[in-house]
Amino acid sequence: MWLSIKRGAQNFSSHLRSLDGLLGVHRSQIKIKFSVKTSRRIRHLIVKMSGQSQRLNVVPTVTMLGIMKARLVGATRGHALLKKKSDALTVQFRAILKKIVSTKESMGEIMKSSAFALTEAKYVAGENIKHIVLENVQNASLKVRSRQENVAGVKLPKFEYFTEGETKNDLTGLARGGQQVQQCRAAYVKAIEVLVELASLQTSFLTLDEAIKTTNRRVNALENVVKPRMENTITYIKGELDELEREDFFRLKKIQGYKKREIEKQMAAAKQYAEEQVAEKVSLKKGISINSAHNLLSKTVEKDEDIIF
Amino acid sequence: MYGFEALTFNIHGGYLEAVVRGHRSSLLTASDYNNLCQCETLDDIKMHLSATEYGPYLQNEPSPLHTTTIVEKCTLKLVDEYKHMLCQATEPLSTFLEYITYGHMIDNVVLIVTGTLHERDVQELLEKCHPLGMFDSIASLAVAQNMRELYRLVLVDTPLAPYFSECITSEDLDDMNIEIMRNTLYKAYLEDFYKFCKKLGGATAEIMTDLLAFEADKRAVNITINSIGTELTRDDRKKLYSNFGLLYPYGHEELAVCEDVDQVRGALEKYPAYQSIFAKLSYGESQMLDKAFYEEEVKRLCLAFEQQFHYGVFFAYMRLREQEIRNLMWISECVAQNQKSRVHDSVVFIF
């Protein structure tokens, strides 16, 4: 058998002393293991019994039984809620996955067509068009903004792009290629749209993945650890209470038995005393010895066939 | 002295004309383009090109070839040929050859000026310039803090100086939109070139004025179409049109008030030369206009080679080479981006 003691417990030798009495095991046979995982709220030591899941080590009183029952109800409700949350998140997850696949395909197409639009612009306006446009730019006119969206309790980031300021350079390629440059611009704006959408989908995907893992971990923890522990504790408490009751009952019965015997003894003693008194009286009256008086009395007690009246 | 060039041209220009005609015969033909269009990867293209004149320039490139490398190397070949010709030329041919590159010079200057305005690194900007348009003091453009200094320190020594002083006062330089500045400079350049060719006289004048007129008209149409719907006012638009060409002056009047592509088409249908261009496009579409213009230009440039003893062949050769490089760029991009179906959209066969 081993015990796990909460981190920060002082003076565990005193624990040992109290425990060995409780458990009926000698101190030398108790091995100590430090466990970090005990819950903050439960300040009891967790006892592991060989072959079963753990139960809390509590004082088995009725109040404690009530508390444990309340905790079990809480754990059950929490488990149901978390399971619902996990299901909702999984549904969202699948929807996002589908959208990611379709967006990625369309992104491939759009990037291809925008690269080609750039080629057309280069053909008509000269190779330098790229440098001309780049040199003329001060700061970006298309920017990306992020905001939080709440989906089933999980905060997902979402990106959207917005245009800030107007683009000057409407006159790029005035003498040749202006049209192609504008078309190229439109194609790349579309490409940016798709890319921004894909970015927000992918970040939501990752965040949701984390959230689902955490929630599932909690659900499993509740289902496989906390609830069985509670149930075992409740069973233990009930068992102890029953045993106490039985002990009490037994004690009561024993005491009743003693009392009865006492009473019988007293009654027997009283009867003997009364008999002796009567014998004394008879002996005094008749002048015989007490013994023969006793015999007389006892004979009168036993019915003599010869005596008619 | 029209008609007597045969007597004296070969004294100074004969060697270079022969050189240029030799280069012209090495331009890629339709069958070359067909082969290139069939290529699956950029390495195939490199292999095909190594059989042409571009071989020595491309053979040292490492294997994951990039489309920009191909274009760079082909441009390098053009620059080498040009420099060779420039070295061998005498007046007035050397001035003529220099005039051909002023367009690129204007582009480079504008690029560096805007880059400096936005505080970019000078070395990077220099790398992005077109090699044909480099001149010695180009790096010092980056030093100037504003336009006035720019003009005073740098531009006044370059051949571009007269263009700046004619059309732009120094106040305008600070605020004016870069594109408008670029186009105003180019307009001044075209007019200057036109005057110079006229002064040369003879077959050169005739052929070059024709080619330059087409260029000016093409620019006018493009400016009109590209400025529809923008903030460019009609007067500004008119200021950007050159003062020669088939469309001058009445066509320009009409173009200045156009608000729509169809109106432009209507204005141009009066000129039979340009009518055929617009006939290729259906109503409302203007995407392929640039390609139609390129095709027309190539036709006219090829015609320039039909005559001898004039300088137009040099101009025509440079332009044809540039078109060829554009074709190569288009083909390699289509192959690299897996859009083989669009290859024939924009390749202009030279012959």
Automatic annotation (TrEMBL), chain A:
Pfam families: ATP-synt_D. One of its GO terms (molecular function) is proton-transporting ATPase activity, rotational mechanism. Keywords: Ion transport, Transport. Signal peptide: none annotated. InterPro entries: V_ATPase_D (IPR002699). Coiled coil: none annotated. Transmembrane segments: none annotated. Belongs to the V-ATPase D subunit family. This is V-type proton ATPase subunit D-like.
TrEMBL record, chain B:
It holds the Pfam family vATP-synt_AC39. GO terms for molecular function: proton-transporting ATPase activity, rotational mechanism. InterPro entries: ATPase_csu/dsu_sf, ATPase_V0-cplx_csu/dsu, ATPase_V0-cplx_dsu, V-type_ATPase_csu/dsu, V-type_ATPase_csu/dsu_dom_3. GO terms for biological process: vacuolar acidification; vacuolar transport. The keyword Transport applies. Keywords: Hydrogen ion transport, Ion transport, Transport. GO terms for cellular component: proton-transporting V-type ATPase, V0 domain; vacuolar proton-transporting V-type ATPase complex. Gene3D superfamilies: ATP synthase (C/AC39) subunit, domain 3, V-type ATP synthase subunit C domain. Belongs to the V-ATPase V0D/AC39 subunit family. V-ATPase is a heteromultimeric enzyme made up of two complexes: the ATP-hydrolytic V1 complex and the proton translocation V0 complex. Subunit of the V0 complex of vacuolar(H+)-ATPase (V-ATPase), a multisubunit enzyme composed of a peripheral complex (V1) that hydrolyzes ATP and a membrane integral complex (V0) that translocates protons. V-ATPase is responsible for acidifying and maintaining the pH of intracellular compartments and in some cell types, is targeted to the plasma membrane, where it is responsible for acidifying the extracellular environment. Subunit of the integral membrane V0 complex of vacuolar ATPase. Vacuolar ATPase is responsible for acidifying a variety of intracellular compartments in eukaryotic cells, thus providing most of the energy required for transport processes in the vacuolar system. This is V-type proton ATPase subunit.
